[in-house]
Write a structure and sequence with these properties.
Elements lengths: L15 H9 L7 E11 L3 E9 L8 E6 L4 H10 L1 H11 L11 E6 L6 E6 L7 E2 L8 H17 L3 H8 L11 H12 L6 H20 L6 E3 L8 E4 L2 E4 L6 E3 L1 H12 L2 H22 L6 H11 L3 H4 L15 H18 L1 H9 L2
Amino acid sequence: MSTSPALPADPSQVTPEWLSEALGERFPGTRVAAVEVLEIHHGTNSNARLGVSYDGESSLPETYFLKMLPLDPKQRETINKTGMGKRETLFYRNLASDVPMRVPRPYVAQLDESDGSFVLLIEDLEPTDCQLADPVAGITVEQAGNAMRDYAELHIRFEDEAVRRQDAGWVEFMGGDSDMGVWMLQFGLDNHREKLRDGFAEMAELYIERRSELDEIWTRGPVTVLQGDSHVGNLFLDAGRVGFLDWGLIQLGTPMRDVGYFITMALSPENRRAHERELIQRYLDARTEIGGRPFDFDEAWLLHRVHAAYAAPAACPLVLFPEDDPMENRPLSRSFLERAQCVIEDLDPRGALREFANF
């Protein structure tokens, strides 16, 4: 999937001619007869479902999921600065077919380095038996337990620096280049403090005041490639197996950042409280079985609590409490923020940061 200098900027611009050429890079001889935009949603990105018919027989799908930068110029610039589109495109171009996790199959992954625009054409899950995770109930403990081995395999594969350089040299540590999280959290504190519980507000204030220090602390420990954003809204289920939808925050970091975020933001708070210790142990056991670097449980548990502090910046868009938030988004928005507030209350990340880094 090579880079193309002239990418569609709107789903309606995906023409049969362009798509024939784009698909032809991986599937030579493909000739697209017609493209129809079946659904479209303009949010953080422009997402659409495309119906495609072919000139002649083809084993390729009749529908695809399309993802590109948003149309609004200001929003386009804001999202572009985060680098999420570039990272996700590089993931689908270079790693998606090889990671030991269920991810949507990639068909087109093109990036224009000159302006950050991208086009992703990936597996459309709607006509399959796959289901999106329930945003309120979350995934089950059994499903989470099975995913622990997926995480162990991903992390162990990339713990060797030479392997990372060769196979994922473009994956980097996430820095504090963008101040988007800071201003969103400050807006929430200034305008919606009554909707935020004290523990969350304290952690938000700490992040605003000492973001660079927290970013550095969160990178400490053994390094590997992380999925980076496996909250309940980015998960689907394929015959009960957890699948991972959004790879815009793929990054380098320490394994417990990935495992802890998944456990705290994919299970219901009740299930997380009752089972997080056993799930962490399942991850540690899987690492041992596969032959990875051993972790002591107490070390893993402390890191789990340290990285629970990330729940505050992770929830930064939600503390804006936008009045025009679409009705269909509200169950996920509310349950995400509730998970974030509960984990900060339950795990005392402030105390963990003192213990771990004298912070």
